[in-house]
Write the structure tokens for this entry.
Amino acid sequence: METFLCGTAIAGVVVLSIFLYLLNTARKKVAPKTAFGKKDYAPLYLSIADRPQSIIQGMDRLRIDVDKTEKAGDKWRWIPLLIFFAGIGMALIDVLLFLLGYVSFVFSAGGLVLWIAAIVMARSLRRSDTQDFPPRYSGLKQIVQILRDDLRPGSTFLGHLDLTGAMLNTKVARETRDTQDRTTQYFRDEWLALKAKLYDGNVIRVSAIQKSKKRKSYMKRSRISGKYKSKPEKFKGTEHDLKVRIVVNPEVYIMDANPKVKQGQSIGKYTITTLNTEGGIINLVASSPFEEVEHENILGVLQSAYSLLQRKAA
Amino acid sequence: MSKKIIPFVVAFILVCLIMVVAGVFAFSGALAAEKFGSDIVWSKAYPTAESMKVIDLTGDGQDELFIQNTSNITVFDGAGNVMWSFEYASPKTTLGDVNGDGVEDIIVYYTGTGMSVDIISKGQVTTLAQTLSIGFPARVAVIRFASGPQIVLGDNEGNILSLGLDGQPRWSSALGAAEVRGMDDALIGGQPHAAIATNDGAIAVFDAQGGQVWFHTQEQLRRMRAFDLNSDGNSEVITGGEYGAFHIYNAADGSLLFEKSLGQAVSEVRIVELNGDPSSREIVVGGKDGGVWAFSFDGTTAAQLWTGSLSDKVTEIAGIDINEDGKEEAVIGDDSGKVAVFTENGARNNLPPQYSGVTRIDVGRLNGERYVVIADGSNVEANRVNFNSIPGFQYMPLIVGLIVSAIILVIAAIIASVPPKPELKVSFQDKSRESLEAERRMLKESIADVERLRKSGEVTGDAYLARLKRLRADLADNETAFKTAGHQIKVETFKCPNCGGTLELGMDKCEYCGQVILS
């Protein structure tokens, strides 16, 4: 009797686990959070060397393709759960036969195969899920759309949009150790690099860099109990740098000091930290302590940098 | 292979596997939905039966139920009414026609005036012999020797005494020094002999004059039975030991035909025609701890068919063709009162349990109907055993296999219909020469930027190499795009033969893996 009860309990736990797994996969997947509580987005990398219209169309096409795959998976999302219930139904036939005095495992075996098939199908459909696109993706599209009319005819935007993650191991710029032997990692993520030859003969280079800091997990000995404890890794903050470099066409522009654009001046979420206009080249570095900067802020800095130029009289 | 084809290929392989397994189960007959049940037709009080047999003891063509315990011999008619009942002291009985009237008689070896033997023929008791020179009754058998029938008596000290049908002693012998535990007629060259075994492990076959044809000793013995398993005119003597030894001897010369250790004391051995093939006989063995084994004997040796178990010591085994398929099922009872039917393949089906330990089971026709008669510690019951099955259930694996296969194919179709997930690393690249050259310049500037960052200490180690590797790979892609578009390009990169990372021409050591490169 004990064996029967124990076997029934184990089978019940297994069946319940399969049911909960399939129910979880049947629901729309919610984007997981990172270790530091931030939303995890799709790891996108765009290499850009094309005309604005092609870039915009390509970005739209990518989004449509991803949506198409996701919708195709969504359509069948509840099928594995239905197959699971079909398996339960088959097992119940054996239970019915048992109640009638017959011993049969044929239908239960069939049900078991159906459950395995349901799990395989659920996993397969789950692969069609994609995390949400990061806001920076549509931000770049906005930037390209706004700058497209200023581009020299026939030329292309060049650069990349790297949204694979700001704190990957490949993006560790340096590491430091403190007196307690704790390691702090400094990440440098140049997530946007854009270069374009403009209609007015200027060449503009924009580089958006996210700098993050993280202390790695470490073992610490308690002063009271003497036991070793593991301390989790800790996010120590992030900041953004925006580097703008404009090589000015001297035939069209002269440099003009603008009192509104100077070192220490705030532009949206950014604050200008370096401004150099020597040699006919504008070098501007703006920093932001905010965790996220929107494309409007980047465009604001570009507009401010351009306000240092004055068109020569015809 | 197309990604749309792969799910169907996998599904096809799975479907084939499932259908093969289903086919094996369906056509091997291993699966059947069968159930056995029993209804009590009548029940009478009769404590602790030692011997029981459904047999015609009146000559009317109708079987009666003979039953005997340590103090009584009773015969019930087919309806369970007592026909005769006799009190005896410590009787041991056997059945056989000793008066030649064609009707089986009851031969009783008991403690009366000394050790005595009575014959009960059609309810009439006749004393055949008294004050016999033999000990306390242990076994009695009627052996139809070629020279005429003899009544062979065995006592609890291994003494043997043979009587003629006139009650006069024919011969006597001694075998071992313990209780006679088995006495059966064994054929040698078609002629009956007496196979006798004692509790201390002595086994011998005696001829009509009391001479030993052969003698053998083995471990302490609990059961001995003799059957001509292959109908060759020579019986096989089957023994079960106190410590699990299961032996089959040739009755003609005592040679050992088969032996196996069963791991528990053998408490019962019977012949049951399990497979319905008369060219071989099946032996069902019960153990003291509830073990059940079935063996098939083909004339030279035995092979184990299956094993099963009951809850307690197996006390009785009987064969009956319950489902009328020409194969007997083994009805087995144990000391805790459980009764189970074991089929040809060893599947166990429980019958309603008895209130106390089963002592005897026999099968036969009573009142024109086939009954299984079960005697336990307090009662004897005639049971009508019934059998039910779901017709065609053996092909159910094929139906289940088809359902599962259909669902697997549907799953494959759904998986194939989902488009592949798009690549999340995308390149938007204009193929014009100007654009490619601009991109190339940009990449070189970026490489220079990374070098500058390294020199300034802003980027160190792995991050520098990872960024450099990516930019160089982009540069190699740019060169490929140049070539694809048919433009002239001076190649500046190559791949590391060890790690595949892109390097600049002229480098003699891979920066990523340290491989020395000879060029």
About this structure: The mean pLDDT of chain A is 88.
